[in-house]
Amino acid sequence: MERTEAKVYKSNxxxxxxxxxxxxxxxxxxxxIAKVRHDEAxxxxxxYRVSAQEIAExxxxxxxxxxxxxxxxxxxxxxxxxxxxEKPNGGEPDELVTRWVQAVVYKKKEGTVEIRFAxxxxxxxxxxxxxxxxxxxxxxxxxxSGYAIRFYELIAQWRGTEKHGKGERLIEIEWLRxxxxxxxxxxxxxxxxxxxxxxxxKQINEHTHLKAEWExxxxxxxxxxxxxxxxxxxxxxSVQETAKRQRLTRAVIERSARPGETWEKAKERLEKERR
Length: 275
Description:
This protein has 275 residues and is an alpha+beta fold. It has three domains: 131 residues, Winged helix-like DNA-binding domain superfamily/Winged helix DNA-binding domain (Arc Repressor Mutant, subunit A), CATH 1.10.10; 91 residues, Winged helix-like DNA-binding domain superfamily/Winged helix DNA-binding domain (Arc Repressor Mutant, subunit A, Orthogonal Bundle); 38 residues, no CATH class. The chain is 39% helix and 24% strand. The chain is built from eleven helices and eleven strands. It has a three-stranded antiparallel sheet, with no helix packed on it. A three-stranded antiparallel sheet has the order 3-7-6. A hairpin with a 2-residue loop joins strand 10 and strand 11. The longest helix has 19 residues. It is globular and about 55 Å long.
């Protein structure tokens, strides 16, 4: 039986929410989001578990390092909050301040963390009917920057809008600062480029199937926006030939789906590519 690749599903409102999580806090949250069932009623009584072994395998890091970082992140995670400005599936705007989790259980002997998502957070993770973003957990697993993960999600949210295989998204810098909760950090645009934007684009290019770049935009003399650009990396011919020979099972289609692409659209695209 083929194994279905772990996928992260988030409401677009959560992708654009204002929050700050460390790299390992993001790894815990995303690993648990990937385990949320989408075919069952939402319940805030379910605990989602992630282990140091799981993190080490996903990220290609040493088990001892994953164990140490997992514990430290678990201790901080209960205090982390997000400000969300829209309802899960769109509609009238709200401003919701919520914790990510309502309980964290660290099991030292097992090297695991179990979390229960906050009641108000769950609708942004499950039973999403529209305005949501999804991508493979493996796309961001090896990233070493929480900012890079956020940038990838901002691109993934707009996948499917590409023209001739190329996509663009214009982002206001002040909005970006708010979304990343930078507060007084990187006030100079040069520092923002050096420590946030450029490393994020570099990691997207290194660890994902996308080739990304960015440009700055000015209003008058002031830099006010950045323009993200991306396209799919060209696969080697050997990979393309293997993909053509592989049977299009549901698992294969899910594994090959681009961020933001529905199963039906992925199936249609893959069938066209094989003709």
